[in-house]
Amino acid sequence: KNVRSEIGIGIHEITKTTSSSAPSALPRSTSSDNQDSEVFVLGGKDAVMYTNTDFRADIFIDNQSTLKLKLENGAHMTGAVNTDNTAKSVTLTLAKDAQWILTDDSHIMSFSDEDLAFRNIQSNGHNIYYQKNASTILGGMTYDLPGGGKLMPEY
Predict the structure, then answer these.
(1) Kindly report the CA angle at 133 between 128 and 139, in degrees rounded to 5?
(2) Of 30, 74, 75, 103, which one's alpha carbon is 20 to 30 angstroms from that of 15?
(3) Cβ neighbours of residue 9 under 8 Å, at least 6 residues apart?
(4) b/e map of 51-90 (b: 16 or more CB within 10 Å)?
(5) Digit-coded pLDDT (tens) for 115-138
């Protein structure tokens, strides 16, 4: 079953204890029912922080939208972000105790990971592309990721 969600302007924090009053457009933990989601960011700015939760989704962002995504406190995301490279801006921050399992190539303008060895990423042969000028800590270099993919600058 696919769940399609649209999110607009706002700041959202999703936790394992998130109640039903949380923004209905955002997927909550779906690991127990193995349900995949598609999240669309359309015409707005969004900041989403996943804390101590599991989440399976591909996130699509239109060319007028920005997304700041932060995974922390044991958050676990399976999916891809901005696969078609259309977003105005995407920032993704991974805490050392968070995990991201890629399901497709992802395009992130500003990428940071507290684990500088990237052990919290399982690439499954997919790549993460970043913007050199927005991710200066990466030095414009290409890095091998666990699972055979690469973290590399977008050319």
Answers:
(1) 70
(2) 103
(3) 44, 45, 46
(4) bbbbbbbbbbbeeebbbbbbbbeebbbbbbbbbeeebebb
(5) 999 999 999 999 999 999 999 999
Give 140-145 contacts, CB < 8 A, sequence gap 24+.
143/118, 145/118, 145/121
Q: Can you tell me the distance from the alpha carbon of 114 to that of 112, in angstroms, rounded to the nearest whole number? A: 7
pLDDT tens digit string along 70-86?
888 898 999 999 999 99
Q: 123 in helix, strand or coil?
A: coil
pTM (two decimals): 0.76
Distance CA 54, CA 77 (A): 6
12-18 own/partner pairs: CB under 8 Å, 24+ apart: 12/46, 12/47, 12/48, 12/49, 13/48, 13/49, 13/51, 14/48, 14/49, 14/50, 14/51, 14/53, 14/55, 15/50, 15/51, 15/52, 15/53, 16/51, 16/52, 16/53, 18/53
Going by C-beta distance under 8 Å and a sequence separation of 6 or more, which residues neighbour residue 4?
37, 38, 40
